[in-house]
Amino acid sequence: MNRESLKESVRSQMPAARWQHTLGVVETSIRLAARYGADPDKAELAAILHDCCKSWPVDRQAAVIREHALSEDVLQYDKELWHAIAGAWVAEKEYGVNDPEVLDAIRYHTTGRAGMTLLEKVVCLADYIEPGRDFPAVNNIRELAEHSLEKALVAGFDSTIHFLLDRGKKIYPLTVLTRNALLFELESAGGTMREP
Amino acid sequence: MNRESLKESVRSQMPAARWQHTLGVVETSIRLAARYGADPDKAELAAILHDCCKSWPVDRQAAVIREHALSEDVLQYDKELWHAIAGAWVAEKEYGVNDPEVLDAIRYHTTGRAGMTLLEKVVCLADYIEPGRDFPAVNNIRELAEHSLEKALVAGFDSTIHFLLDRGKKIYPLTVLTRNALLFELESAGGTMREP
To answer: Which long-range contacts does A11-16 make (Cβ < 8 Å, 24+ apart)?
Structure first.
């Protein structure tokens, strides 16, 4: 499937506002990839597909996770997390993406993971800061993104964890492991990792 | 060692303010134990010993953890966490405590764990709310403690996680697993667990 047909197919499965968000993540992923030295083509492909099943009914997302035994523990946590894991499966099986780096960038775009690749960091951060995003910490995260992928991602996960605490929601353990891993990376690099 | 000699020995290893805090945790643990049906004698013993090595030099705390291979991962996290794990070892080996419930209440008084016992909840919560404590959320936690051990503990861990986020510190994974486990307990009990 060429890039335009792929975009058309993904667009057809979501409301206009979600597609607008996707285009924002595409644009920001390409920009961050260029800035930090990730592959812009892989960044674009992962960004197009990152929310490919986010607008599906959550039961259908859960069914994909359950039927294919994909990180089923996530089903005990916030529904907002499910589409990333289901989406990586859809990207592979329904869109024929076979690049594991791209699939992992889709799979981990919401939670991250310990040992994130550069591409995973780019797409995850782009999802926090694309131009359509508007939440209290977003301008701070955008500013940090000019200087350090890792510092910006820590600030992104901080905002997610604050959001969950304020609403009495459970915190998906991987989110905290990811934030800790980024802080360990920053410590061992003396606070200066992934400057452009 | 009788209770008075034990208190005298623990007192001698800490500054007056830390001993004052310990007496507050003893008093509050006994009160919470009576209210929620835990063993008041075990609660008192765990409370007397909960900070038994908190005033030791941190290198000595770390040495206990390293030499006896006790949850060594904790050494990558905040030093404030070390005394609980080292303290359980000291309580057993130096004070001859052999009741595993009491030792676990000391070991998990700072982080909690998934599946906390009633005694562990009592001592952990008492440590948050003893009369000498003064931090922004403490009155809210004290109020919740009148109605639900689990809700009060969730609020306690919320305050700890906020504190760590605000300072850019790593979050010990067990802290989040404990908070999630308490929320799962509250969900399955319909929000009404451990009311007195």
So the answer is: A13/A52, A13/A53, A13/A55, A13/A56, A14/A51, A14/A54, A14/A55, A15/A55
pLDDT value at residue B196: 63
**Alpha-carbon span A145 to B49, nearest angstrom:** 47
Assigned token pair, B187? 């969900």
pLDDT band (50, 70, 90) for residue A192: low
Contact flag B170-A162 (C-beta cutoff 8 Å): no
**Which of B170, B177, B178, B185 should we substitute to test contact with A (largest number of A Cβ atoms within 10 Å)?**
B170
pLDDT of residue A1: 82
Identify the pLDDT of residue B191: 58
CA–CA dist B174, A142 (Å, integer) = 31
Residue of A168, A169, A176 with shortest CB distance to B171: A176
Alpha-carbon gap, residue A30 to A23, rounded angstroms:
11
Q: Which of B170, B177, B183 sits opposite A180 (nearest CB)?
A: B170
Concatenate the DSSP letters of all residues of A54-110 into one string: TTS-HHHHHHHHHHTT-SGGGGGS-GGGHHHHHHHHHHHHTT----HHHHHHHHTTT
Question: DSSP states of A127-173 as a string?
Answer: HHHSTT---TTHHHHHHHHTT-HHHHHHHHHHHHHHHHHHTT----H
User: Considering chain B, what is the average pLDDT of its residues?
Assistant: 96
In single-letter form, the type of residue at position B80 comes to E
